[in-house]
Design a protein that fits this description.
Belongs to the N(4)-acetylcytidine amidohydrolase family. Its EC number is 3.5.1.135. One of its GO terms (cellular component) is cytosol. This protein has helices spanning about 15-20, 70-75, 80-90; strands at about 5-10, 25-30, 40-45, 50-65, 95-105. With about 110 residues, the chain is of the alpha+beta class. It has three helices and five strands; from the N terminus they run βαβββααβ. About 20% of the residues lie in helices and about 35% in strands. It has a single domain (about 5-105), classed as Archaeosine Trna-guanine Transglycosylase, Chain: A, domain 4 (Roll). It has a five-stranded mixed sheet with strand order 1-3-4-5-2. The structure holds the ligand CC(=O)Nc1ccn([C@H]2C[C@H](O)[C@@H](CO)O2)c(=O)n1. Ligand LWPQI4CV binds near residues 9, 28, 46, 78 and 86.
Length: about 110
Amino acid sequence: MNQAPTKITFFEWLTPLVASGKKTITIRDESESHYVPGTRVDVHTLEKDKYVCQIDIVSVEKIGFDDINEEHAAQEFIPLEELKPLIREIYPNDEDFYVITYTLVA
Ligand SMILES: CC(=O)Nc1ccn([C@H]2C[C@H](O)[C@@H](CO)O2)c(=O)n1
């Protein structure tokens, strides 16, 4: 049986939003969707693998690209008109994504 992942990376420029508790979701492709609700995960920067903080995974829910909306943007703490192009840039060929909801560990 596969183990639940214990680490997630974010672009360095996004990590202050995660560490402050302002950003409460991330939208990833299938390859990064295997987080398990109820587990605790270490946040690192993607670029330098620097430890940032810990988060608890709340839920992992499948979503289509076209269904990403203002509510997701608010939870991402990124304007929707920036969020959707960013996701397209990271994942140019995907239509199905996963909303990973988490809480910051104090
Ligand atoms: C390896 C990789 O893809 N890392 C990612 C992917 C996405 N993000 C952020 C960017 C947006 O806030 C959301 C939407 O995908 O997640 C990231 O920080 N690192």
